[in-house]
TrEMBL record:
Belongs to the glycosyl hydrolase 13 family. GO terms for molecular function: hydrolase activity. It comes from the Bacteria. Residues 20-410 form the Glycosyl hydrolase family 13 catalytic domain. InterPro entries: GH, GH13_cat_dom, O16G_dom_2. This is Glycoside hydrolase family 13 protein. Signal peptide: none annotated. Keywords: Hydrolase. It comes from Streptomyces oryzae.
Amino acid sequence: MHIATATTTRRWWRDAVIYQVYVRSFLDSTGDGVGDLAGVRAGLPYLKKLGVDGIWLSPFYPSPHHDHGYDVADYCDVDPLFGDLREFDLLVADAHRLGVKVVIDIVPNHCSSQHRWFHAALADRPGGPARSRFHFADGRGPEGELPPNNWRAMFGGPAWSRVTEPDGTPGQWYLHLFTPDQPDLNWRDPAVGGEFTDVLRFWLDRGVDGFRIDVAAGLFKHPELPDSPDPEADERARDSVNPLAWNQPEVHQVWRDWRAVCDEYAARDGVDRLLVGEVSVPTAREHAEYVRADELHQAFFFDLLSAEWDVDAFRKAISEALTDIAGTGSTVTWVLNNHDQVRTVTRYAGESTTVGPDRARAAALLMLALPGAAYVYQGEELGLPEVVDLPDEVLTDPIFRRTGSRSRIRDGCRVPLPWSGHASPFGFTAADSTARPWLPQPEWFAEHATERALADTRSFWHLYRDGLQLRRNLPQLGEGDLRWLETPPQVLAFVRGDGLVCAVNFGLDPVPAPVAGTPLLASRDCPPGVLPGSTAAWWISDLPIHSANSPKGNTP
């Protein structure tokens, strides 16, 4: 067995750029219109050429797919829709031969209503051991006809559903903070934690390099399940806002236990196994609590993703992250998009669609310049806009199914990728297949097809590739301090400890560049001494880094 050195592999995650693969929309190898693990294997050379360090796979487990795999029916297998365990093993082996890490999604807050545990709970009696693995409770009202509390589900509607008992009578209620198809697990029952330790070991033994943890601020609820003063907060925000349901202090012990398991495997061969959490909490300071030295290695920092295209908003988010999160000894994990969000080209467009691509390119360079790690959602490297006009009859998002509202639905960023050609399926599935892609691709996807992006040196793809190559050549990707530079009001600029200067012009008008000379890389044509509007650029400079007002980055 190859024993890796600590300096090269124990800390690989600190500055890694991970590419999020939404499996069902990446590449279809079977011609059924749905992407699969063999399709991911086929796409690995493309991702290696792009220059990412690893991939994060969306859930591929057996599931009824009421929430596209985030309703897991079996945590230790592969849904036949995506392949089988042998195909998964081949994917891991191929990725490792190319030097690409493999991170898989794990969903510990809830499971599918088709999971064997939930079937057992329905068959059990009130108060029985099978029900204790979930949140079953008696209803309120004379006949128990009212939910146990007033909480609402994030995806719409009440957070409780009533079951029919085995004898046919109306019975208890169970909690589901997303949909009724996704009952929340009760982590106060030791059996739940024991089961997930076994799940971790199952996949670690198959060679995975880490886990992306869904709803990592979840798991525990207030033990008394009281009414909320704002029961519609989660439903209104489409986020984990209810303080009685999320971010309970007990959850931190789970991450200490999981970290111990990962550290055990790391001790065997000197290669860290990554835990990266989807942590949605109100402040950077609370976020930092999840990445303390004995908990998660990383947690997605969503403040850039949620920020408007505004220089002050970006500066505030970056400063708070570098002060609070990096102070724990972790590195900040930057993200601009994922499978739940409107694509950046569309999100940054504002009232004018013409500026969206320029702003998205600039934001990408900014993210790649920041100390720490970064995650890139598939299709962002192609400059894909959101598909906003999908007809109602093809929408699959449970938010739409439960509310009838198209507001903040997620199908538009999940349309299968275009690879080649001028008409659907754009190489996503075999041209001679009679199956259509599971979500329809618009005609204008042809402008963003991978083969066209690779051939055009001015494309989004080449910008990402060039940025990733330069990143690798810089000595302090995950570490080091940065100092803000004096700039015009609409410009954000900083210098890092390795001499990299990054500047972003959030305005529309050109301004003087903070560094003389031609930049190493720019998101748009950037003449020497000028920084055009909606543009980011990198230079190497001997500007001093140290300043009393410098936000602190990480230290080795």
